[in-house]
Each structure stands twice: as C-alpha cells, then as structure tokens.
Amino acid sequence: xxxxxxxxxxxxxxxxxxxxxxxxxxxxxxxxxxxxxxxxxxxxxxxxxxxxxxxxxxxxxxxxxxxxxxxxxxxxxxxxxxxxxxxxxxxxxxxxxxxxxxxxxxxxxxxxxxxxxxxxxxxxxxxxxxxxxxxxxxxxxxxxxxxxxxxxxxxxxxxxxxxxxxxxxxxxxxxxxxxxxxxxxxxxxxxxxxxxxxxxxxxxxxxxxxxxxxxxxxxxxxxxxxxxxxxxxxxxxxxxxxxxxxxxxxxxxxxxxxxxxxxxxxxxxxxxxxxxxxxxxxxxxxxxxxxxxxxxxxxxxxxxxxxxxxxxxxxxxxxxxxxxxxxxxxxxxxxxxxxxxxxxxxxxxxxxxxxxxxxxxxxxxxxxxxxxxxxxxxxxxxxxxxxxxxxxxxxxxxxxxxxxxxxxxxxxxxxxxxxxxxxxxxxxxxxxxxxxxxxxxxxxxxxxxxxxxxxxxxxxxxxxxxxxxxxxxxxxxxxxxxxxxxxxxxxxxxxxxxxxxxxxxxxxxxxxxxxxxxxxxxxxxxxxxxxxxxxxxxxxxxxxxxxxxxxxxxxxxxxxxxxxxxxxxxxxxxxxxxxxxxxxxxxxxxxxxxxxxxxxxxxxxxxx
Length: 608
Hints:
The protein is of the alpha/beta class. Helix content is about 40%, strand content about 15%.
C-alpha cells in the first residue's frame, strides 16, 4: 500500500439522529438527510438494527401510521470502531450497513454497495501501480502528511538506510521517530515550519548518511498538506561528484579564482562540497586573501544563487545601530525610528544568504541574538516580542583567531561552535606563490578590458611579484596591477616599475636566505665569496631585468656588473639583461684581469 490503510472514520457519513424502535413510520422520514440512506435503530440505547430509507418508501402512507420502526428494521448490520480498516470490512464478510461507534455512541454510518466496492478496488489498483512505480526509483522516496506522520517509504529507502519500512517508522509521527533516534533530525518538520524546500544531511541509526531534500505540497489555503522527501546516498554522491560533478565545479572555480597551488586546490574542493548543502560555513584568513570571493562562489554554486546575497561588515556599522540594521525595528522603538518600522538585513536576505564579514567584531549582546537565530531560525525586531521565521543561510568570515577571542571572553564559545561547522582556511598569498602568476594575468585582463588598454607583463616582472611578501595579499596584488595598467608608459610593464610601486628599490629589501647557500665542504674563502657573488649577480639580473638596474640594486658601478657577468660566464644569458647602450662585452684579459683569476670586488676598474 502506498499510504496507510483507509479507516472507516475517513469515509463515514456523520449522523445527528438515531431511530427509536417504537417510533411510528410516518414520523421518521424527517430524520433522514440527503447523505444518509439508512439510520440505526435503538432500543434502550442498544443498537438492534437499521432502517433503510428505501424500505420506508415501499410502505404505503396508510400502513406507516400503524407500523413501528421495529416492525421493519433490518438485522443486516455491523458495528465497528472508527479506526478499523475499510479494506477489512469489504473483504471480510461484507455487510451493506456499517454503524460506526465512538465510546459507545453512534458517530456515523457507511452504506456499502457494489459501486463503492468497485471504486475502492480501482483505488487499490491505482495505489498498487503507483507503489510499483515508486519502488523502481533508485532514490529513496518518503512522504509525510500534514500531521507529521510517515505515510510512504519505497524499497530504495530500505536499501539506502538498511532499515525495513517498519523499523524506519512507517505510520509513526516524525517527532517519535527522532525521539527514538532512528534519524538524527526530520527534514519534513523543517519544511512544514518554513514552508519551503529544504536540504539536510540526515544520519540514520544504522550509521549511514543520506542527503535528504524535502518539497512541500500545499492545499488551496496555502497550508502544507504533504511533504515529499528525496533521499540520496551521501557516500555515492561524494564518489560521483569526485568523478563528475565536483571535478566540473572545481574547473569552474579554478578558472574564476586563478588557482594553481595545492593549498588552494583544497579550498576549491571544500567550496564545491559545501555549496549545494545548506550548512553554515566559517571562512578564515588574513585580510585581502579573498574571503568574500570564496563566499560568493559558495552561493553561486548553491540552490540560492538567484536569491538575495547580503554582505554585512560587522566592524563597519556603529555598535548602537548594528542591532536595528541586522534585525530591524518596530515603529516607535526608539527616537528617530521610522513610524512604520523597518525590516532588517536578515529579513531582506530571507530565502537567500547572509555573509557576516569580520564576525569577530560583533558585540557580545548581538552575538546572543545571532546564536538564537542559528538555533531556531527566528528573529525579533527591536521593540517587538513577535518572532519572525526566516530561511537564511549563514556564511561568516574573520581574519582573527576566534579560539583566542573565546579564551579572552570576547567571543561566545557556543556561537563559535555554531559558526565553525565547516571551516575553510584561505592561505596567505606569500604561502602560495605559484598563484601569483595566474592571478596577475587574470587582473591584467580585467583592467585591460575595463580601461580599453593592452598592457603586457613579462617573465622577469612576474618574478619580481613572486619574490614580494604581499602583506596585503590578493587585494594588494589587484590594486598594484590596476595601478600599473593605468600608469605604465608604453605597452610593457617593466620590473623596475613594479619595484618602484612596491617600494623595494633599496638593496636591503633584496635578501637571500642563508638556506639558499649550500657549502658542501671547507673551501678557500675567496672561492666561497666568488660563489656568493655569482649567485647575487644572477639573482639581481633575474629580478631587475637589466645590467644597469642590477648594478643599482647591488650598489656597484655598472661596469662592475659587466665584468662580473663575464667572470662568472653569465654572458650567454646577457642578451636578455643587457641595457640598450651596451652592445659588446670584452673578455676579462682585455680589461685588465686574467680570465681564471679571482679578484677583489672592492677594487673597481673603470673602462675608458
């Protein structure tokens, strides 16, 4: 059966009167209504028979005056309780006249004729066909009625959960099913409460997890009369997404966010996994790493992509205005309040997403209100006691250590745990230098298009960017590229221009870690100095792009750089570094030094 068996209470015809066995027949016709074809006959409050209206009409009016109800009453009847299955009545020694009693009192009647039997059989046939169809669906299917009772489960649900329909609670109220810990929470109850489609991860007592999506079915008055729930195997979905869905989402996200490093690949994977599920996300990272970009991509890949996205910077709104801005206020709640009241940002974001940026800056009194919303999805306007139910997804972000703030008493520990359901940590740009080149190219294309320009950037300029520490992270990189696109003369962005804008022209800013120098064994000091000198010159040329710029960076004369290039046999790479004024580099012995002899770099020889 698709639904619970139909009971006689659902199809009985209520009656207001019963017939006394001693009543005269000519006085009883007025007790019948258009809906009733017979009435019960009582003798001292005991049911002794039934009197069909058809039987009365067959008797002449003259005879009705002398005959009493008991004279023509039929013994063809059956007394049942309201909760008896209707199918049992018509299949087990069917009797035409059914009297329904509740607590010993007659409450209704059912007249079973051939037409009703045929209709019921046709209904059963439709139900059975529908059940067969639903049982062929791979996804689990469940249905709950308006009372919150499970009235349908298909075979796939049994397969997904490892529970039989009876073990899963078919016929039980969902409140009881949750109380018995058969399921972790009820999606149907959420759908009935918010009257909208909902999706959750549901844990089954067998240890399995399913993705449950509930859809409300409304009656003419707009009330939820039924909830249809689709269940999917979360393990299978994860595996499928790994092969197809997530890979596709990852490709899209990777393209939008210009990602190459493994650290950001993990961020992309998390975004793709949490986006389709309405779960609270906490994004952590330094200022400028792109927390808002990640939040928007979560929304763009979710079912709320076309719903409101409200970005709230908790540190930008004055504390005395923050509560009314977030939760709204009633008219007259405070001086200066609009007479009609005002909806807050949470109400504006209903059915969408709120991005709480810098949530660590939220005052403690408001943290309590946010915690209440996360618990029951209701808010109260300032000056009102009436709760407002909202369907809003929360994504929070901060650049501070919330655990440390909790320890200091500046952030509520219960709110921290409510927000920290799925944390996404975005690494700083200096920790993912391989992302600098693709990000630079993406920003270059963006601003070239914005300003109708065609600026280009070379490999050595990219290397300057990659060697910088980027305290302002991606936001700083984006601003620098925009500035370079606008201010650079000519079509090429040069390394020197980048160094000027980043204030790294001073030699002291060009440092080499001691870990970069490998000393395999003891060696003459002059040889060690020569090795370090060669590395410094090479790095200066790679970073600065020209011999003159390299000389300035190292604090030596231009001719000294030329000699050191020749000495360390870097001349094969010189064309890419050479200044425009240099066309020829003589061998060392022609400018006063033996070819293989080390020399003191403090003694410069000028070329006439």
